[in-house]
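Hi C.,

You asked whether I'd gotten around to modeling the 219-residue construct. I have! Everything is below, sequence then structure, no commentary in between.
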Amino acid sequence: MDVQVLGNPDYGELKVDLGAGETILIEGGAMSRMTTSMDMRSRIMGGILSGLMRKVFGGESLFVGEYGGASGGELALSPSLPGTVCHRRLDGDELFLTAGSFLACTPGVTLKTRFGGFRALFSGEGAFLLRALGTGDLWFNAYGAVMERDLDGELTVDTGHVVGWEPGIEYSIGGMGGLKSTLFSGEGLTMKFRGQGKIWLQSRNLPATAGWLSPFCVG
C-alpha cells in the first residue's frame, strides 16, 4: 500500500495505491475517485452497537467503506471540510479524536466511542469522543491548518479548535473564569488539558464559521 497526502494544509486529500488483496477502511462519503478495478463493500466497524454509538454520539457514519480489489487499484479520499489531513501510526496504542475527525484507517485499527462527561454535551464537540486503537495506520482531518504540539504541563483550548490527543493527556471542560465571563466573553466552554503527550489543534472553528455565515443565509 502506498499512501500520499496531497493538498495540505488547505485542501488535504489522500491518494491511495492498493496492491492485490490489500484493503483500506474509509469514512462514509469520503471517496472522491477510484479506478474501475476497485471493489467496495459497506461494513460496520466493531459491530452494530459500536457503529450505532459512533453514528449517534460520535458524529461519524454508521458504515465505513472497505475498498480493495483482487488486482489492486487507486482511489482518492477527500474530507468534507477543507483543511489538513494527518497521519498517525498506531502500534498497539490509541488516540482520542473529536467527532468528525476520522478519515481512514488500515484494517488493524478499530474505532470506539468514549463518553466525555455531561459538560461535553454543551461544548460544541458532542458528548462522546472517538477512540482509535489497534495496530495500523490512521488518517484524520482538521478544519484549517493543524498545530501538532508536545504538551508537558497544562494548556487551555477552545473546544472548537481541538482535533485529537494522546491518552497520556487528561482533560476537563469548563468555562472562561466565572459564569459572566463564560456567557459574555464569546469563548464559551474550553478544554483544559494537562499531562504529557502530543495534542493536535486546528486553526479554524466550524461552529464559529457557521455563526459568521448565518446572517448571510437569510432568504
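If it helps when you're writing up: Residues 2-209 form a domain with the Double-stranded beta-helix fold (CATH 3.60.160.10).

Thanks,
B.
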